[in-house]
Design goal:
Elements lengths: L1 H30 L3 E3 L4 H22 L7 H22 L7 E3 L17 H16 L3 H29 L7
Helix pairs in contact: 2-5, 3-4, 4-5
Length: about 170
């Protein structure tokens, strides 16, 4: 139980810190004239992530599984995702937020992980939503939220981001 509490506690604390950074950066970007897109679906992301953690905790408490036999693989994937997340945040600095905010006339960030992936933070989240529950054999949570996350990202979030960047004159997303 201790590894579960430590890993989940760390991840939830990380999310809370990210929400504070998002709030601060969002306020600054809006003051600079940024335009927000997708505010109408932002609740989906908050709900998805909240339910993801609730599902992991609930499934863990009901099943009380041991660490996966492949724990090193899943922990390695999770830690690699955290490294890329930090790289994304450090690359974007004050422009990093969990919202879709576009500064008209500003060019897209094309350095750091963005030179390799058009949506590196979404890749991070996808890896995390799969690897974190599998670390503790929480197969229901891993399966259900991997599919749900893919539906929200591919069906709502990424298309909205592409439109936002085109409308703002930032050019097409690579």
């Amino acid at each position: 139980m201790i590894p579960f509490v430590l890993v989940i506690g760390f991840t939830i604390l990380q999310r809370l810190i990210e929400l504070r950074v998002t709030k601060r950066n969002t306020e600054r970007l809006l003051r600079r004239g940024a335009i927000e897109y997708g505010a109408d679906h932002y609740w989906m992301l908050i709900t998805l992530h909240t339910l993801f953690f609730a599902s992991m905790i609930g499934e863990y408490l009901i099943r009380r599984p041991a660490l996966s036999d492949n724990w090193a693989l899943f922990l390695g994937l999770f830690l690699a995702a955290q490294t890329v997340r930090a790289w994304v945040i450090l690359t974007m600095r004050a422009r990093w937020t969990t919202r879709i905010l576009v500064l008209p006339g500003e060019s897209l960030i094309a350095k750091g992980p963005f030179q390799y992936f058009p949506h590196p933070n979404y890749l991070v989240v996808a890896i995390e939503i799969l690897s974190l529950p599998l670390l503790f054999q929480l197969v229901f949570t891993a399966s259900f939220f991997t599919v749900l996350n893919a539906l929200v990202l591919l069906g709502v979030r990424i298309p909205k981001e592409r439109v936002a960047l085109r409308n703002a004159g930032a050019g097409p997303l690579r």
